[in-house]
């Protein structure tokens, strides 16, 4: 028997197959492969659409950072007339076509509140409630559903919750403050002094977009960062890495990648972008930190249109004081400070994940299953996982 006396306190649904949490690209891919094998499954999605990150929380100019052949899902390639780097809308269209082709019908507006493995019967108990709880609001009493299944597949990714640092004085700033997930275009920032906090791929591209719309961005760079060109002499940097990984050790590939980066984008340390002490691929594999693929931001730094500044000490009305003592007049602030996984908040009584949301078992062990549990796209390796798969 199932343990816990509350078994009959909510509507229960038996799933004679896996439950997949997340209807992003990974969740859809798993569903399609299961559909081909005739295995029943249920996809739970907290939003009201597939790929909600792409549809609701990305800026307009976004394109895939990797060539399309590395981003297509199983059994359905991208259309031949798509460019090498499909746009945001093209990728969304592709995912919607993929869902239709494999008759994938996620259960939308179902937010997982808890998932627990019941050792007495060897089954997973997954409790859901309605709606997406991104905003911190008091939860009204809502109907809960409990799903019972043998297998649980987590495909929620690394970008479930926004990360916004608590900076002294931010409540007194008075200007516009938003997270990069709310940013769409630099058009409404024309002529403004904009402080972009963060120098990852999103931060760099938002700064580039602001420059293109005649805003005046300052980019806060606190940590070291690897900046690689998206292409080297017309070839994708990622594609070159895939080729080299077939023959060379990771650290050798890292050294070659840095040499190519120096030849194409130059010495970025002179621009205030200090490189980490370990290579870009090794850093991604060990710490989960993704290198930046430059789309033109470095040229804007060189021209002076984009200014690099150090960390923030404090906010004041309409101004910000930096750690080096400088004070900037600022109209708007964009926190390009990333996301984190929310799996540790609802996955109960397991030792699968660290507090930061990354799995404790490195790739590919997380795919092998433990108590019927499998996690897909929260790996520190990220695109390094794709490299590994290409190498195999």
TrEMBL record:
Keywords: FAD, Flavoprotein, Monooxygenase, NADP, Oxidoreductase. It is an enzyme of class 1 (oxidoreductase). It catalyses: indole-3-pyruvate + NADPH + O2 + H(+) = (indol-3-yl)acetate + CO2 + NADP(+) + H2O. The keyword Ligase does not apply. One of its GO terms (molecular function) is flavin adenine dinucleotide binding. Its cofactor is FAD. GO terms for biological process: auxin biosynthetic process. It comes from the Eukaryota. Its EC number is 1.-.-.-. SUPFAM superfamilies: FAD/NAD(P)-binding domain. Pfam families: FMO-like. Belongs to the FMO family. This is Flavin-containing monooxygenase. It comes from Acorus calamus (Sweet flag).
